[in-house]
Amino acid sequence: MDYLGSGFLRALVLLFSGDPETYSAIITTLEISTLSIVASLIIGIPGGFVLGYFEFPGKRQIRTISDTLLALPTVVVGLFVYAFISRRGPLGDFGLLFTVPGVALAQTLLVLPIVVSLTATAVESLDRRLRLTLITLGANARQIALQTILEARFAVLTAAVTAYGRAISEVGISMMIGGNIKWHTRTITTAVALETGKGEFAMGIALGIVLLSLALVVNAILVTLRRKR
Amino acid sequence: MKRKTVFTLGLSLLCLLFLFSGAVTAADRVLMMATTTSTDNTGLLNDLGPMFKADTGIELKWVAVGTGNALELGKNCDVDVLLVHAPATEMKYVADGYGVDRREIMFNDFIFVGPKGDPAGVKGKSVKEALTIFASKKIPFASRGDNSGTHKMELSLWKDAGIPLPDKETWYIQTGQGMINTINIAAERDAYTLTDRGTFIKYEANWKGNPPLEILVEGDAALKNQYSVIAVNPKRCEKAKYDLATKFSQWMASPKIQKAIADFKLMGKQLFFPNAAK
User: Fold this and answer.
1) A101: nearest CB among B20, B62, B181
2) Domain of B198?
3) Topology of domain A34-187, per CATH?
4) Yes or no, beta carbons of B77 and A97 under 8 Å apart
5) Do residue A97 and residue B41 have CB atoms under 8 angstroms apart?
6) Which terminal residue of chain B, N or C, has fewer Cβ atoms less than 10 Å from its own Cβ?
7) Helix residue ranges per DSSP H, chain A
8) B-chain residues within 8 Å CB-CB of A100?
9) Residue in A89, A98, A99 closest to B63 by CB
10) Considering the entire predicted model, what is its pTM?
11) B133, B202: one domain
Protein backbone atom coordinates (compact mmCIF):
# COMPACT_ATOMS: atom_id res chain seq x y z
CA MET A 1 0.00 0.00 0.00
CA ASP A 2 2.67 2.47 1.04
CA TYR A 3 4.07 2.68 -2.49
CA LEU A 4 0.99 4.68 -3.56
CA GLY A 5 1.96 7.62 -1.37
CA SER A 6 5.64 7.45 -2.13
CA GLY A 7 4.79 7.04 -5.83
CA PHE A 8 2.87 10.30 -5.75
CA LEU A 9 5.80 12.11 -4.17
CA ARG A 10 8.24 10.56 -6.64
CA ALA A 11 6.05 11.79 -9.52
CA LEU A 12 6.38 15.38 -8.31
CA VAL A 13 10.14 14.99 -7.90
CA LEU A 14 10.51 13.48 -11.41
CA LEU A 15 8.49 16.25 -13.02
CA PHE A 16 10.03 19.21 -11.22
CA SER A 17 13.64 18.06 -10.99
CA GLY A 18 13.75 17.64 -14.78
CA ASP A 19 14.86 14.00 -14.52
CA PRO A 20 16.38 13.29 -17.99
CA GLU A 21 15.15 9.68 -18.24
CA THR A 22 11.59 10.71 -17.46
CA TYR A 23 11.66 13.59 -19.90
CA SER A 24 13.13 11.36 -22.60
CA ALA A 25 10.18 8.99 -22.09
CA ILE A 26 7.72 11.91 -22.10
CA ILE A 27 9.12 13.25 -25.37
CA THR A 28 9.10 9.80 -26.99
CA THR A 29 5.52 9.28 -25.85
CA LEU A 30 4.45 12.64 -27.28
CA GLU A 31 6.33 12.03 -30.52
CA ILE A 32 4.73 8.64 -31.10
CA SER A 33 1.20 9.57 -30.12
CA THR A 34 1.28 12.86 -32.07
CA LEU A 35 2.55 11.15 -35.21
CA SER A 36 -0.05 8.41 -34.98
CA ILE A 37 -2.88 10.83 -34.24
CA VAL A 38 -2.00 13.16 -37.11
CA ALA A 39 -1.74 10.23 -39.53
CA SER A 40 -4.98 8.65 -38.33
CA LEU A 41 -6.84 11.97 -38.59
CA ILE A 42 -5.54 12.60 -42.12
CA ILE A 43 -6.82 9.19 -43.21
CA GLY A 44 -9.70 8.77 -40.77
CA ILE A 45 -11.67 12.01 -41.10
CA PRO A 46 -12.18 11.77 -44.88
CA GLY A 47 -12.83 8.05 -44.47
CA GLY A 48 -15.37 8.64 -41.71
CA PHE A 49 -17.02 11.38 -43.76
CA VAL A 50 -17.45 9.11 -46.79
CA LEU A 51 -18.79 6.35 -44.56
CA GLY A 52 -21.26 8.67 -42.79
CA TYR A 53 -22.35 10.87 -45.70
CA PHE A 54 -22.82 8.65 -48.73
CA GLU A 55 -25.04 5.69 -49.38
CA PHE A 56 -23.29 2.88 -51.21
CA PRO A 57 -23.45 -0.90 -51.33
CA GLY A 58 -21.42 -2.55 -48.59
CA LYS A 59 -21.57 0.55 -46.40
CA ARG A 60 -23.13 -1.25 -43.44
CA GLN A 61 -20.63 -4.09 -43.67
CA ILE A 62 -17.69 -1.67 -43.69
CA ARG A 63 -19.24 0.12 -40.74
CA THR A 64 -19.54 -3.15 -38.82
CA ILE A 65 -15.93 -3.99 -39.55
CA SER A 66 -14.77 -0.55 -38.40
CA ASP A 67 -16.84 -0.86 -35.21
CA THR A 68 -15.47 -4.34 -34.56
CA LEU A 69 -11.90 -3.10 -34.96
CA LEU A 70 -12.52 -0.76 -32.02
CA ALA A 71 -11.92 -3.88 -29.93
CA LEU A 72 -8.51 -4.60 -31.48
CA PRO A 73 -6.12 -5.83 -28.79
CA THR A 74 -2.86 -3.86 -28.88
CA VAL A 75 -0.67 -6.96 -28.78
CA VAL A 76 -2.42 -8.33 -31.86
CA VAL A 77 -1.76 -5.10 -33.75
CA GLY A 78 1.83 -5.39 -32.54
CA LEU A 79 2.18 -8.95 -33.83
CA PHE A 80 0.54 -8.04 -37.13
CA VAL A 81 2.80 -5.04 -37.75
CA TYR A 82 5.86 -6.97 -36.51
CA ALA A 83 5.24 -9.58 -39.21
CA PHE A 84 5.47 -6.83 -41.84
CA ILE A 85 8.36 -4.71 -40.56
CA SER A 86 10.62 -7.45 -39.20
CA ARG A 87 13.82 -7.62 -41.28
CA ARG A 88 12.48 -10.83 -42.79
CA GLY A 89 9.07 -9.27 -43.46
CA PRO A 90 7.93 -7.57 -46.70
CA LEU A 91 8.69 -4.07 -45.34
CA GLY A 92 11.87 -5.14 -43.55
CA ASP A 93 14.16 -3.00 -45.70
CA PHE A 94 12.82 0.22 -44.20
CA GLY A 95 14.32 -0.66 -40.83
CA LEU A 96 11.21 0.40 -38.90
CA LEU A 97 11.36 -2.18 -36.12
CA PHE A 98 12.47 -0.76 -32.75
CA THR A 99 12.04 2.83 -33.98
CA VAL A 100 9.64 5.65 -33.13
CA PRO A 101 8.03 5.75 -36.63
CA GLY A 102 7.50 1.97 -36.45
CA VAL A 103 5.53 2.32 -33.22
CA ALA A 104 3.63 5.30 -34.66
CA LEU A 105 2.71 3.26 -37.74
CA ALA A 106 1.26 0.46 -35.63
CA GLN A 107 -0.56 2.90 -33.34
CA THR A 108 -2.09 4.57 -36.38
CA LEU A 109 -3.67 1.24 -37.30
CA LEU A 110 -4.87 0.89 -33.72
CA VAL A 111 -6.65 4.25 -33.48
CA LEU A 112 -7.81 4.60 -37.09
CA PRO A 113 -11.08 2.71 -36.43
CA ILE A 114 -11.87 5.10 -33.56
CA VAL A 115 -11.53 8.15 -35.81
CA VAL A 116 -13.45 6.54 -38.69
CA SER A 117 -16.34 5.22 -36.61
CA LEU A 118 -16.82 8.32 -34.45
CA THR A 119 -16.53 10.69 -37.44
CA ALA A 120 -19.04 8.61 -39.40
CA THR A 121 -21.47 8.71 -36.46
CA ALA A 122 -21.01 12.47 -36.11
CA VAL A 123 -21.68 13.08 -39.80
CA GLU A 124 -24.70 10.76 -39.80
CA SER A 125 -26.30 12.53 -36.86
CA LEU A 126 -26.20 15.98 -38.47
CA ASP A 127 -29.44 17.63 -39.51
CA ARG A 128 -30.34 16.31 -42.96
CA ARG A 129 -31.47 19.74 -44.08
CA LEU A 130 -27.83 20.94 -43.88
CA ARG A 131 -27.00 19.08 -47.07
CA LEU A 132 -30.00 20.44 -48.92
CA THR A 133 -29.28 23.97 -47.72
CA LEU A 134 -25.68 23.74 -48.87
CA ILE A 135 -26.76 22.47 -52.28
CA THR A 136 -29.34 25.24 -52.63
CA LEU A 137 -26.66 27.78 -51.78
CA GLY A 138 -24.67 26.42 -54.70
CA ALA A 139 -21.85 24.78 -52.75
CA ASN A 140 -19.57 22.46 -54.72
CA ALA A 141 -18.61 18.99 -53.52
CA ARG A 142 -15.52 20.10 -51.67
CA GLN A 143 -17.34 22.93 -49.93
CA ILE A 144 -20.10 20.52 -48.88
CA ALA A 145 -17.56 18.12 -47.35
CA LEU A 146 -15.69 20.89 -45.56
CA GLN A 147 -18.85 22.53 -44.18
CA THR A 148 -20.28 19.21 -43.04
CA ILE A 149 -17.13 18.32 -41.11
CA LEU A 150 -16.96 21.85 -39.73
CA GLU A 151 -20.52 21.44 -38.51
CA ALA A 152 -19.55 18.18 -36.81
CA ARG A 153 -16.28 19.57 -35.45
CA PHE A 154 -16.99 19.02 -31.75
CA ALA A 155 -17.80 15.37 -32.29
CA VAL A 156 -14.70 15.01 -34.48
CA LEU A 157 -12.65 16.65 -31.75
CA THR A 158 -14.04 14.09 -29.31
CA ALA A 159 -12.96 11.36 -31.71
CA ALA A 160 -9.46 12.84 -31.75
CA VAL A 161 -9.32 13.05 -27.95
CA THR A 162 -10.52 9.46 -27.58
CA ALA A 163 -7.98 8.26 -30.14
CA TYR A 164 -5.24 10.21 -28.38
CA GLY A 165 -6.16 8.62 -25.08
CA ARG A 166 -5.93 5.16 -26.59
CA ALA A 167 -2.59 5.89 -28.27
CA ILE A 168 -0.91 7.49 -25.29
CA SER A 169 -1.94 4.78 -22.84
CA GLU A 170 -1.34 1.59 -24.81
CA VAL A 171 1.63 -0.57 -23.88
CA GLY A 172 1.41 -3.72 -26.04
CA ILE A 173 2.47 -2.10 -29.31
CA SER A 174 5.10 0.16 -27.77
CA MET A 175 6.68 -2.84 -26.07
CA MET A 176 6.65 -5.16 -29.09
CA ILE A 177 7.48 -2.75 -31.91
CA GLY A 178 9.47 -0.22 -29.88
CA GLY A 179 11.33 -2.68 -27.67
CA ASN A 180 11.48 -0.29 -24.67
CA ILE A 181 14.99 0.88 -25.63
CA LYS A 182 16.35 3.42 -23.16
CA TRP A 183 16.74 6.96 -24.61
CA HIS A 184 15.15 5.83 -27.92
CA THR A 185 11.83 4.03 -27.78
CA ARG A 186 11.12 3.95 -24.06
CA THR A 187 7.70 5.51 -23.59
CA ILE A 188 6.05 6.23 -20.26
CA THR A 189 3.90 3.10 -20.47
CA THR A 190 6.79 0.76 -21.30
CA ALA A 191 8.80 2.42 -18.51
CA VAL A 192 5.92 1.61 -16.12
CA ALA A 193 5.99 -2.00 -17.32
CA LEU A 194 9.77 -2.12 -16.80
CA GLU A 195 9.63 -0.63 -13.31
CA THR A 196 6.90 -3.12 -12.40
CA GLY A 197 9.10 -5.90 -13.79
CA LYS A 198 11.90 -4.66 -11.57
CA GLY A 199 9.57 -4.64 -8.57
CA GLU A 200 9.89 -0.84 -8.26
CA PHE A 201 6.17 -0.27 -7.78
CA ALA A 202 6.46 3.27 -6.41
CA MET A 203 8.39 4.34 -9.51
CA GLY A 204 5.70 2.70 -11.68
CA ILE A 205 2.96 4.66 -9.92
CA ALA A 206 5.01 7.84 -10.24
CA LEU A 207 5.33 7.39 -14.00
CA GLY A 208 1.61 6.62 -14.21
CA ILE A 209 0.88 9.97 -12.60
CA VAL A 210 3.29 11.65 -15.02
CA LEU A 211 1.32 10.11 -17.92
CA LEU A 212 -1.98 11.37 -16.51
CA SER A 213 -0.53 14.88 -16.10
CA LEU A 214 0.52 14.77 -19.72
CA ALA A 215 -2.99 13.75 -20.80
CA LEU A 216 -4.39 16.57 -18.68
CA VAL A 217 -2.20 19.14 -20.44
CA VAL A 218 -3.17 17.84 -23.89
CA ASN A 219 -6.88 17.94 -23.02
CA ALA A 220 -6.61 21.41 -21.50
CA ILE A 221 -5.11 22.64 -24.78
CA LEU A 222 -7.97 21.07 -26.74
CA VAL A 223 -10.59 22.65 -24.47
CA THR A 224 -9.12 26.13 -25.07
CA LEU A 225 -9.06 25.42 -28.81
CA ARG A 226 -12.75 24.54 -28.64
CA ARG A 227 -13.58 27.77 -26.83
CA LYS A 228 -11.73 29.93 -29.34
CA ARG A 229 -13.53 28.56 -32.34
CA MET B 1 -9.08 28.64 -42.65
CA LYS B 2 -8.35 26.70 -45.81
CA ARG B 3 -4.78 27.93 -46.07
CA LYS B 4 -4.26 27.08 -42.42
CA THR B 5 -5.48 23.54 -42.96
CA VAL B 6 -3.17 23.07 -45.93
CA PHE B 7 -0.32 24.48 -43.90
CA THR B 8 -0.94 22.12 -40.96
CA LEU B 9 -1.25 19.16 -43.29
CA GLY B 10 1.99 20.00 -45.05
CA LEU B 11 3.78 20.54 -41.79
CA SER B 12 2.70 17.22 -40.33
CA LEU B 13 3.66 15.38 -43.51
CA LEU B 14 7.09 17.02 -43.36
CA CYS B 15 7.45 15.90 -39.76
CA LEU B 16 6.55 12.36 -40.77
CA LEU B 17 9.08 12.34 -43.60
CA PHE B 18 11.77 13.80 -41.38
CA LEU B 19 11.23 11.16 -38.74
CA PHE B 20 11.15 8.29 -41.21
CA SER B 21 14.37 9.39 -42.92
CA GLY B 22 16.02 9.79 -39.51
CA ALA B 23 15.21 6.20 -38.70
CA VAL B 24 16.82 4.94 -41.88
CA THR B 25 20.09 6.88 -41.77
CA ALA B 26 20.93 6.75 -38.06
CA ALA B 27 21.52 3.02 -38.02
CA ASP B 28 25.27 2.83 -38.68
CA ARG B 29 27.27 2.49 -35.47
CA VAL B 30 24.43 0.93 -33.49
CA LEU B 31 24.50 -2.63 -32.21
CA MET B 32 21.08 -4.12 -31.62
CA MET B 33 20.96 -6.82 -28.94
CA ALA B 34 18.22 -9.06 -27.64
CA THR B 35 18.79 -10.16 -24.09
CA THR B 36 17.02 -11.63 -21.09
CA THR B 37 15.16 -9.77 -18.38
CA SER B 38 17.74 -10.68 -15.71
CA THR B 39 20.60 -8.68 -17.28
CA ASP B 40 18.33 -5.65 -17.67
CA ASN B 41 16.23 -5.74 -14.49
CA THR B 42 19.31 -6.01 -12.27
CA GLY B 43 20.79 -2.90 -13.88
CA LEU B 44 23.94 -4.60 -15.25
CA LEU B 45 23.37 -3.40 -18.81
CA ASN B 46 22.70 0.15 -17.66
CA ASP B 47 26.31 0.09 -16.45
CA LEU B 48 27.85 -1.78 -19.38
CA GLY B 49 26.03 0.08 -22.21
CA PRO B 50 27.73 3.47 -21.64
CA MET B 51 31.11 1.75 -21.06
CA PHE B 52 30.83 0.01 -24.43
CA LYS B 53 30.05 3.32 -26.10
CA ALA B 54 33.03 5.00 -24.40
CA ASP B 55 35.44 2.20 -25.37
CA THR B 56 34.35 1.56 -28.95
CA GLY B 57 32.08 4.41 -30.04
CA ILE B 58 29.36 1.87 -30.77
CA GLU B 59 25.96 2.46 -29.30
CA LEU B 60 24.45 -0.61 -27.68
CA LYS B 61 20.67 -0.82 -27.89
CA TRP B 62 18.92 -3.73 -26.28
CA VAL B 63 15.48 -5.23 -25.86
CA ALA B 64 14.97 -7.31 -22.73
CA VAL B 65 12.71 -10.30 -23.29
CA GLY B 66 12.68 -13.97 -22.32
CA THR B 67 15.42 -16.14 -23.84
CA GLY B 68 12.89 -17.87 -26.13
CA ASN B 69 11.69 -14.55 -27.50
CA ALA B 70 15.29 -13.26 -27.83
CA LEU B 71 16.30 -16.29 -29.92
CA GLU B 72 13.25 -15.75 -32.12
CA LEU B 73 14.21 -12.11 -32.75
CA GLY B 74 17.64 -13.38 -33.84
CA LYS B 75 16.04 -15.93 -36.15
CA ASN B 76 14.04 -13.14 -37.82
CA CYS B 77 17.23 -11.05 -38.28
CA ASP B 78 15.81 -8.23 -36.15
CA VAL B 79 18.84 -8.02 -33.86
CA ASP B 80 22.60 -8.39 -34.38
CA VAL B 81 23.68 -10.12 -31.20
CA LEU B 82 22.19 -12.11 -28.31
CA LEU B 83 23.06 -12.31 -24.61
CA VAL B 84 21.11 -15.29 -23.33
CA HIS B 85 21.20 -18.13 -20.79
CA ALA B 86 19.89 -21.48 -22.00
CA PRO B 87 23.00 -23.48 -23.04
CA ALA B 88 21.27 -26.57 -24.44
CA THR B 89 18.88 -24.50 -26.56
CA GLU B 90 21.73 -22.23 -27.64
CA MET B 91 23.83 -25.17 -28.90
CA LYS B 92 20.92 -26.36 -31.00
CA TYR B 93 20.36 -22.79 -32.22
CA VAL B 94 23.97 -22.56 -33.40
CA ALA B 95 23.86 -26.05 -34.90
CA ASP B 96 20.73 -25.08 -36.83
CA GLY B 97 22.65 -22.18 -38.36
CA TYR B 98 20.78 -19.28 -36.74
CA GLY B 99 23.71 -18.08 -34.63
CA VAL B 100 27.52 -18.21 -34.72
CA ASP B 101 30.48 -17.71 -32.38
CA ARG B 102 28.77 -18.64 -29.12
CA ARG B 103 31.02 -17.37 -26.34
CA GLU B 104 30.49 -17.99 -22.62
CA ILE B 105 30.76 -14.73 -20.67
CA MET B 106 29.60 -15.12 -17.11
CA PHE B 107 27.46 -17.23 -14.83
CA ASN B 108 25.49 -17.11 -11.69
CA ASP B 109 23.28 -19.83 -10.29
CA PHE B 110 19.66 -20.70 -9.88
CA ILE B 111 18.20 -21.06 -6.42
CA PHE B 112 14.92 -22.33 -5.00
CA VAL B 113 13.28 -19.74 -2.81
CA GLY B 114 10.23 -20.20 -0.62
CA PRO B 115 8.24 -18.76 2.30
CA LYS B 116 10.16 -17.91 5.46
CA GLY B 117 10.00 -20.85 7.85
CA ASP B 118 10.03 -23.33 4.95
CA PRO B 119 6.63 -25.07 5.47
CA ALA B 120 7.54 -27.83 3.01
CA GLY B 121 10.85 -28.56 4.72
CA VAL B 122 13.17 -28.51 1.70
CA LYS B 123 15.97 -26.44 3.20
CA GLY B 124 19.39 -27.87 2.38
CA LYS B 125 17.92 -30.71 0.30
CA SER B 126 19.10 -31.58 -3.21
CA VAL B 127 17.14 -30.39 -6.23
CA LYS B 128 15.70 -33.85 -6.85
CA GLU B 129 14.59 -34.28 -3.22
CA ALA B 130 13.02 -30.81 -3.16
CA LEU B 131 11.05 -31.37 -6.38
CA THR B 132 9.87 -34.77 -5.11
CA ILE B 133 8.59 -33.11 -1.92
CA PHE B 134 6.76 -30.38 -3.92
CA ALA B 135 5.08 -32.95 -6.13
CA SER B 136 4.13 -35.49 -3.45
CA LYS B 137 2.90 -32.96 -0.88
CA LYS B 138 1.30 -30.71 -3.54
CA ILE B 139 3.19 -27.63 -2.32
CA PRO B 140 2.34 -24.44 -4.27
CA PHE B 141 5.07 -23.78 -6.83
CA ALA B 142 5.26 -20.76 -9.14
CA SER B 143 6.69 -21.41 -12.60
CA ARG B 144 7.61 -18.75 -15.18
CA GLY B 145 5.79 -20.72 -17.87
CA ASP B 146 7.07 -18.34 -20.57
CA ASN B 147 9.79 -20.27 -22.40
CA SER B 148 12.48 -18.11 -20.80
CA GLY B 149 15.92 -19.39 -19.82
CA THR B 150 14.75 -19.86 -16.24
CA HIS B 151 11.66 -21.74 -17.41
CA LYS B 152 13.75 -24.00 -19.63
CA MET B 153 16.04 -24.72 -16.66
CA GLU B 154 13.05 -25.58 -14.46
CA LEU B 155 11.63 -27.93 -17.10
CA SER B 156 14.96 -29.75 -17.37
CA LEU B 157 15.15 -30.08 -13.56
CA TRP B 158 11.72 -31.80 -13.42
CA LYS B 159 12.84 -34.07 -16.24
CA ASP B 160 16.15 -34.97 -14.58
CA ALA B 161 14.31 -35.70 -11.33
CA GLY B 162 12.10 -38.16 -13.25
CA ILE B 163 8.90 -36.35 -12.30
CA PRO B 164 6.31 -35.72 -15.02
CA LEU B 165 5.70 -31.99 -15.52
CA PRO B 166 2.81 -31.02 -13.18
CA ASP B 167 1.28 -28.95 -15.99
CA LYS B 168 -2.37 -29.11 -14.92
CA GLU B 169 -1.95 -29.55 -11.16
CA THR B 170 -3.70 -26.87 -9.10
CA TRP B 171 -0.60 -26.32 -6.94
CA TYR B 172 1.54 -25.57 -10.02
CA ILE B 173 1.11 -21.86 -10.79
CA GLN B 174 2.28 -20.88 -14.28
CA THR B 175 2.58 -17.10 -14.22
CA GLY B 176 3.69 -16.35 -17.79
CA GLN B 177 5.47 -13.26 -16.43
CA GLY B 178 8.97 -11.99 -15.75
CA MET B 179 11.15 -13.15 -12.86
CA ILE B 180 10.43 -10.41 -10.30
CA ASN B 181 6.69 -10.64 -10.99
CA THR B 182 6.85 -14.40 -10.55
CA ILE B 183 8.71 -14.01 -7.24
CA ASN B 184 6.03 -11.53 -6.14
CA ILE B 185 3.30 -14.00 -7.05
CA ALA B 186 5.11 -16.73 -5.13
CA ALA B 187 5.28 -14.42 -2.09
CA GLU B 188 1.57 -13.60 -2.31
CA ARG B 189 0.57 -17.25 -2.66
CA ASP B 190 3.07 -18.68 -0.11
CA ALA B 191 4.60 -20.65 -2.95
CA TYR B 192 8.11 -21.79 -3.84
CA THR B 193 9.84 -20.82 -7.06
CA LEU B 194 13.06 -21.14 -9.03
CA THR B 195 14.96 -17.93 -9.73
CA ASP B 196 18.40 -16.79 -10.83
CA ARG B 197 20.38 -15.44 -7.88
CA GLY B 198 20.92 -12.02 -9.47
CA THR B 199 17.21 -11.25 -9.72
CA PHE B 200 16.60 -12.53 -6.18
CA ILE B 201 19.27 -10.17 -4.82
CA LYS B 202 17.49 -7.34 -6.66
CA TYR B 203 14.24 -8.51 -5.03
CA GLU B 204 15.88 -8.51 -1.60
CA ALA B 205 17.15 -4.99 -2.28
CA ASN B 206 13.58 -3.87 -3.11
CA TRP B 207 12.50 -5.17 0.31
CA LYS B 208 15.47 -3.43 1.94
CA GLY B 209 17.03 -6.78 2.80
CA ASN B 210 14.01 -8.26 4.58
CA PRO B 211 11.92 -10.11 1.98
CA PRO B 212 9.08 -12.55 2.77
CA LEU B 213 10.90 -15.31 0.86
CA GLU B 214 14.28 -16.90 1.58
CA ILE B 215 16.83 -19.05 -0.25
CA LEU B 216 16.23 -22.72 0.57
CA VAL B 217 17.96 -24.88 -2.05
CA GLU B 218 21.31 -23.80 -3.54
CA GLY B 219 24.72 -25.03 -4.57
CA ASP B 220 23.58 -28.09 -6.56
CA ALA B 221 25.82 -28.53 -9.63
CA ALA B 222 22.70 -28.76 -11.81
CA LEU B 223 21.80 -25.16 -10.90
CA LYS B 224 24.59 -23.36 -12.76
CA ASN B 225 23.24 -20.52 -14.92
CA GLN B 226 25.56 -19.80 -17.85
CA TYR B 227 25.21 -16.58 -19.90
CA SER B 228 26.63 -16.47 -23.40
CA VAL B 229 26.93 -14.03 -26.27
CA ILE B 230 25.90 -15.32 -29.70
CA ALA B 231 26.26 -13.38 -32.95
CA VAL B 232 23.38 -13.64 -35.39
CA ASN B 233 24.55 -15.61 -38.43
CA PRO B 234 25.52 -13.04 -41.11
CA LYS B 235 25.11 -15.69 -43.83
CA ARG B 236 21.39 -15.92 -43.02
CA CYS B 237 20.88 -12.28 -42.20
CA GLU B 238 22.68 -10.01 -44.65
CA LYS B 239 22.03 -6.88 -42.65
CA ALA B 240 23.17 -8.27 -39.31
CA LYS B 241 26.17 -6.25 -38.13
CA TYR B 242 28.50 -9.18 -37.61
CA ASP B 243 31.63 -7.01 -37.20
CA LEU B 244 30.04 -4.99 -34.40
CA ALA B 245 28.67 -8.14 -32.79
CA THR B 246 32.16 -9.68 -32.81
CA LYS B 247 33.58 -6.53 -31.26
CA PHE B 248 30.97 -6.69 -28.51
CA SER B 249 31.66 -10.36 -27.86
CA GLN B 250 35.43 -9.72 -27.58
CA TRP B 251 34.82 -6.68 -25.42
CA MET B 252 32.61 -8.66 -23.01
CA ALA B 253 35.39 -11.27 -22.67
CA SER B 254 38.17 -8.71 -22.17
CA PRO B 255 39.84 -8.64 -18.71
CA LYS B 256 38.61 -5.09 -18.06
CA ILE B 257 34.94 -5.90 -18.61
CA GLN B 258 35.18 -9.28 -16.92
CA LYS B 259 36.37 -7.36 -13.86
CA ALA B 260 33.56 -4.80 -14.25
CA ILE B 261 31.05 -7.67 -14.27
CA ALA B 262 32.59 -9.10 -11.09
CA ASP B 263 32.49 -5.65 -9.48
CA PHE B 264 28.79 -5.12 -10.23
CA LYS B 265 27.10 -5.42 -6.85
CA LEU B 266 23.72 -4.86 -5.26
CA MET B 267 23.57 -4.57 -1.46
CA GLY B 268 27.21 -5.59 -1.38
CA LYS B 269 26.50 -8.91 -3.12
CA GLN B 270 28.06 -10.00 -6.39
CA LEU B 271 25.39 -10.92 -8.98
CA PHE B 272 27.35 -12.34 -11.91
CA PHE B 273 30.62 -14.29 -12.01
CA PRO B 274 32.75 -13.75 -15.14
CA ASN B 275 34.06 -16.93 -16.78
CA ALA B 276 34.98 -16.08 -20.36
CA ALA B 277 37.74 -18.28 -21.76
CA LYS B 278 41.03 -16.41 -21.77
Assistant:
1) B20
2) 110-224
3) MetI-like fold (1.10.3720)
4) no
5) no
6) C
7) 2-16, 20-53, 59-68, 74-85, 100-124, 129-136, 141-151, 153-169, 172-173, 188-197, 201-228
8) 19, 23
9) A98
10) 0.81
11) yes
